[in-house]
Amino acid sequence: MSIQVRGLTKRFGAFVALDDVDVTVRSGTLTALLGPSGGGKTTLLRVIAGLEQADAGTVVIDDRDATRVPARRRDVGFVFQHYAPFGHLSVARNVAFGLEIRKRPKAEIAARVDELLHLVHLEAFADRLPSELSGGQRQRMALARALAVEPKVLLLDEPFGALDATVRKELRQWLRRLHDEVHVTTVFVTHDQAEALEVADEIVVVNGGRVEQVGAPDDVYDRPANEFVMRFLGPTTSLDGRLVRPHDVEVLGAAEPGAVAAEVGSLRRVGFEARLDARVAGSGDVVEVLGSRSDPALRDLRAGDRVWLRAVGPTVAAASAPRSGTGGAPEPDPSPAADAPADVAASSGASVRGGVPA
Amino acid sequence: MAEAVLTTPDDAAAPARDVAPAPRPVGERRTGRHVVRALVVAYVAVLVVLPVGVLVWRAFAPGLDAFVDAVTDPLSVHAFRMTAEVALISVALTTVLGTIAAFLIARSGLPGMRVLDALLGLPVSVSPIVVGLALILVYGSTGWFGGALESAGIQVILSVPGMVLATMFVSMPLVTRAIVPVLAARGTDEEQAAESLGASAPVRFWRITLPGIRTALVTGVVLALARSIGEYGAVLVVSGNIQGQTETATLRVDTLYQTLLQPDAAYAVTFVLVAVAILTIVATSLLRRSQGGTR
User: Fold this and answer.
1) Residue of A nearest to B201 (CA)
2) Which long-range contacts (CB under 8 A, 24 or more apart) does A211-216 make?
3) Which tens digit of pLDDT belongs to each residue from B227-284?
4) B163 membership: H or E segment, kind and range
5) What ipTM describes this predicted complex?
6) Radius of gyration (Cα) for chain A, nearest Å?
7) Who among B193, B211, B214 is closest to A78 (CB)?
8) Which of B203, B214, B295 is opposite residue A101, by nearest beta carbon?
9) What is the pTM of this model?
């Protein structure tokens, strides 16, 4: 049950939410749409679900052109960011909803609801109202409700966005296991790069209404296509005009080919890490280096020592002035946008995009 | 007078709010509470209990036979029937049209919805007499449409259609104003979820939207019903208050009291109206309690 999106364009007034987007989601995979708020990822998800109409482009689901198919006939399971539970119906009735309106036999519905509640560990809560559930339980209920109708694809909008950090980590591992069990083609939206790297088979980096890069987590992390992807996937520092990750900077005691001379500014130990600030001779650029505190190359350094620095991991050309060391890490969104227009209205994406050449 | 009594459900049916007192020293809080309680009791006693109590007493003072005679007088019975007819027709229409208007205002996103909202709210701030006169200007036999309608055999003014129109006009905002805030606060997430689960528009409305706004809708309809039964001014102007024809119960009270100088009969009819109002309040709170768990 693959998804092919071709040439998708969507505007909200003057704002271009999606700009000629092409994405292919292979059958059976768990794909993350990763990007900053307002980057268009939620809009893309809603267009795939049919909850939003694109201005141009096509959506093909399971080799069938779904562009003009209404949402209710797309066989798409959608889990909303705030789960959209039916407040007047019990957990079991929420899950049964899709089957009830399809007029399936009562016994079949009851059996299927039992099975799904078991799958999401809510057997004991069948008769509760959604308002009596915790956020994580509501989320799992919404997931069971979406899975009940055996959708061809499952779409999740910021599935863990509204949960606290601990529940978030638990649930994302649970989602991974669930996907391995159920095998339905799944696409989820997130602005958290750790979530995408940990859970997804494939990551689509979306920014400013465009796809920046598509690939397996390792591809995207080890071979970032551009400065935006590099910055978005974690902290970066600038070394000799190129962006590199602080833990990919090697500290040498003597000059070697490709290494840049620098002077140690400060060395701090934080937990198991050692953080070094070094000033490059000549340019005066400050490079941040991250290593293990037991690393012999770092252990005995003092302010003023001369070292040589060399990138040992992926680098990309830094088109803009270097920003503070942790520039690329996306700040957690304090109030996740409720739906597409709000998502689109948020302009925080622009600040992350700042350094990307047009 | 009857109208004043009948609009009390307005306050009684308003959604209960939990007013959390600001944390203060215990003694001070207690005194404050006693003062507030005494004020409320005094207010209710002076404005509600005392007048209604006196009314009940006066209604039955001449004896039960006199009360029964007054209430079963053919003209009074006709007036009750008239009130029931006008109130039921207008509440049915107001419920449907008011709900549609509420959806337009809260969900359609069309331009001019704020103006529609303001216009629907107009009867709340304008005197019902003005409403009645305006209807006569349009539908009266010398009005804009009146002549044409009359030659088609439809008489609006001085008959039931006009009275229903006047009653709807004054009770419609009670329905829309009850629903609009709830619709706006709910958003459309649940409907979208239902849509992605395969629900068609009618299924979404009946199974998701309507249960979600049910409490607000019931509140609005009960207020509209109370207002319809109690409406006096607009109906007086439009109906012409013809005894045995267009006279409703509230108009009957006025006729008995002012024109026929039969105050005891007027109190008896008023008592029936008060009883209906109280029954409405009780029925609503029972209905609310029975669905208290769901919303």
Assistant:
1) A72
2) A211/A21, A211/A22, A211/A23, A212/A35, A214/A23, A214/A24
3) 999 888 889 888 888 888 889 999 999 999 988 889 899 999 999 999 998 888 888 8
4) helix B160-186
5) 0.78
6) 23
7) B193
8) B203
9) 0.77
